[in-house]
Amino acid sequence: MSGSLDQVYKGNDLGAVYTKERTTFRVWIPTAEEVELRIYPDGVDSEPLEVLAMKPDAEGTWLAEKTGDCQKLFYTYHILQNGVWTETIDVYAKAAGVNGKRGMVVDLRSTDPAGFSEDAYQNPDSVTDLVVYEVSVRDFSADDSSGIRQKGQFLGMVESGTHNATGEKTGMDYVKELGITHVQLMPVYDFGSVDESKPLENQYNWGYDPINYNLPEGSYASDAYDGSVRIRQMKEMIQTFHENGIGVIMDVVYNHTYSGPDSCLHKTIPFYYHRTDETGFTDGSGCGNEIASERSMVRKMIIDSLCYWVQEYHIDGFRFDLMAVLDQETMREAKTALKKIRPDVVLYGEGWTGGPSALPENRRSLKAYMKMLPQIGAFSDDCRDVIRGDVFVAEGIGFAGGAPELEELVRFAVVGATEHPEVTEGLYSDESWAAAPGQSVNYVSCHDNFSLWDKLAVSLPDLTVDERKAVNRLAAAMVFMCQGMPFLLSGEEMLRSKVDPVTGQPVENSFNVSVEINSMKWNLVHENADIVEYYRGLIAFRKAHQALRMTKTEQIQKYLRFSEVKEQKVVAYKIEAGKVGDTAERLFVIFNANKKKVQVPLPDQGTWKAYIDGTHAGTEALYEVQGSAEVLPVSALVLIQ
Ligand code: CA
């Protein structure tokens, strides 16, 4: 028998569904002529213990049932279609053996750490209240300076009481003290570029190369062979973050698979899950293939997967890699499905593709279409590059580095890419693209491209280290004073660098270079303690002031006003803070990118108190000013009345 790919299976029992008495296996392959279920004793290379013929069932699915307790038995599907037999892991596998070759039947309740069912972290009321810290599980603890025992592991993320050589806190304790609200984990689903069966010393990859969407990466667990270990350890990591008041956002790569032809998707149904043209796989991801999210059962697979991570692992939000490869309808339906489970779920992504996609432009989840995707955010490259300089031009400098004629474009970042009477356009946008400030993810560093500190070194080679630190502080202050959701790469605040020890040069695209280059160096917490303290102060100040975290575009339009300043390379604005429930009556923010100090008249009579200047930031007043403010070279000044 062979059916049509138009058949849609709506049930929620795809994959292996375990009970102690029996396990059922259901797979959607309308095009198959025959399907066999192969049962194995391990996930590696053993011969099958048993082969069961699967029976055609509802809407193009095939069904088999095995009685008895199947916990930790491994399985694959052996599929005949177009006259060819192919063996593959289940697209819906929830557990797998080493390197994700064979699925594993798992009693998910047995993978819950003690107390997991009571774990119930709540995201803040507004996404503008978040401060997101992007972390790679491997990079976080790999270096000896971390003092973390379980290096490169899920559980290393949440070790407590760890210190660097000079005694400063490291790891989770440090992150907690920094004040960030959420960690965003770089890929933690099962990726293909690291061989889990080999020592990790000479292997490194960020993992933007999915092989199994619904189970954790094995190299981050203490045992990659028993598929239940990685599940339990990832859950334990999430639970511990939650116990420490930190939310967990997962970086998801539903836009492509590690390999097109060798993926379980393609092996299950050739050319269904990926987009193609007459030449074969199309490449909207820039990684060799792209997922056809607009097809019914592909869309279902993505949405089922997202819901699964929330329900089973208690993930609090998602960052969508190359979100524009996914169609808008999929994003909208995903949001609806997720909000039913978690009304507070956080969703944002990269509003661009990685290559020429076969999806028509007007269906892509592009940054320019974010107003049609309310409650989903996008990374603001308008903010990133206007402050730090073009990420694609190494020498490119931004406002913070002293580039002229960017004042108008900085305003666009300040209002979080929303519509505002005093703002015309952004660096890369002719008009506003955020319907609400929470849709704008504001940042000057992420895992891609140079770290901020390296970018400043490359683009501002004539500056002294101290001068560059001033640029860095100004850039950071700008991000935290913008409306929207602030985001930073872990270690930005300690001047993290990705310098190759052999060439002495910073590495721009470090996705597969050594762990030595990528890992966080925790001695920097000591060496750059003043910068860390400055970031900590910026975060604390932002958290203390609702005026910086407005939730509605209308509030920004009404209560945020830019000042006309005579000097070039200066942007200043006032917020009627008291009007949006802030403890302060007014905020006045000035960014001065000049190498000289400037005098800026204050917008209201009376005394203003400075809380942030070029070297200090926090919730304690530094000094008072009246009439006009002197703003030091290359610095921010934030005043309260
Ligand atoms: Ca893997």
Main attributes?
641 residues, 8-stranded parallel beta barrel, 21% strand, binds calcium ion
Small molecules held by this entry: calcium ion
- Nearest-angstrom radius of gyration? 26 Å
Number of strands: 29
| Percent of sequence in beta strands | 15-25%
Envelope shape: elongated
Helicity range: 10-25%
Question: What class, by secondary structure content?
Answer: alpha/beta
Count of discrete alpha- or pi-helical segments spanning 4 or more residues: 14
Overall mean confidence score, pLDDT: 97
The stretches of 5 or more residues where confidence is low (pLDDT under 50) are none
Please list the strands of the largest sheet in the order they lie side by side. 10-11-14-17-18-19-20-21
Largest sheet: number of strands, sense, barrel closure: 8 strands, parallel, barrel
Task: State the separation between the terminal residues, measured CA to CA.
Answer: 76 Å
Can you walk through the features of this model?
There is one protein chain. The chain is of the alpha/beta class. The protein has 14 helices and 29 strands. An eight-stranded parallel beta barrel has the order 10-11-14-17-18-19-20-21. Strands 22-23-24-29-26-27 form a six-stranded antiparallel β-sheet. Helix 6 links the parallel strand 17 (317-320) and strand 18 (346-349). The protein is elongated and about 85 Å long. The N and C termini lie far apart (76 Å). Bound molecules: calcium ion. Calcium ion binds next to strand 12. Calcium ion (CA) binds next to strand 12.
